[in-house]
Amino acid sequence: MEKVKAFLELTQAESDRVSSLTFPPHRFGSECSFYEYYALRGIRVDRVEPGQVFCTFKVPPRLTDREGKLASGAIANLVDEVGGAVVYVEGLPMNVSVDMSISFLSTAKADDVLEIIGRVLGQKGGYSGTSVIVKNKTTGELIAEGRHSLFGKHASKM
């Protein structure tokens, strides 16, 4: 238990780095939230097609772990966000994640450029299934593959 506790404790440098972050209070609808600013800043949507979205993301140092690799939580966040974006419908509430399964196949490090492809696998009523592939854009190496199911209100047929 002591080894786990020691592993999870922040170093003084890490603590100072987090303490130095300053963000003004969030005003809903008019500015980015801390989450959007910290976790999502840098995702570039390159192309959108029916049922697909193609993105590029340069791994920022802020999303790396102590070993300098893209944190698994950051990868999960990318799968969640891109999987949700590919089924988003303007004017309807955001869908809610029901289930997510991610295979972590390799790693990425700071400044690696990733290609993220989200695809709709299928939709029935308010339920949607998506697939998200994260790969190194330079080497083509597959970093992660995720399946994401979501539920939301669907458009009326009237």
TrEMBL record:
Sequence ranges assigned to domain Thioesterase in this UniProt record: 72-137
Family of the protein in this entry: Belongs to the thioesterase PaaI family.
Subunit composition and interactions: Homotetramer. Interacts with PCTP.
Keywords, alphabetical: Acetylation, Cytoplasm, Cytoskeleton, Hydrolase, Lipid metabolism, Mitochondrion, Nucleus
The protein, known as: Acyl-coenzyme A thioesterase 13
Pfam families on file: 4HBT
MF terms (GO), sorted A to Z: fatty acyl-CoA hydrolase activity
GO terms under biological process: lipid metabolic process
PANTHER family given in the database record: ACYL-COENZYME A THIOESTERASE 13-LIKE (PTHR21660:SF60), THIOESTERASE SUPERFAMILY MEMBER-RELATED (PTHR21660)
Entry-linked Gene3D superfamilies: Hotdog Thioesterase
GO CC terms of this entry: cytosol; mitochondrion; nucleus; peroxisome; spindle
Coiled-coil segments: none
UniProt key word Mitochondrion: yes
Location (main, coarse): cytoplasm
SUPFAM superfamilies per UniProt: Thioesterase/thiol ester dehydrase-isomerase
Places the protein is found: Cytoplasm, Cytoskeleton, Spindle; Cytoplasm, Cytosol; Mitochondrion; Nucleus
Source species of the chain: Capsicum annuum (Capsicum pepper)
Domain of life from the UniProt record: Eukaryota
CDD domains with a match to the protein in the record: PaaI_thioesterase (cd03443)
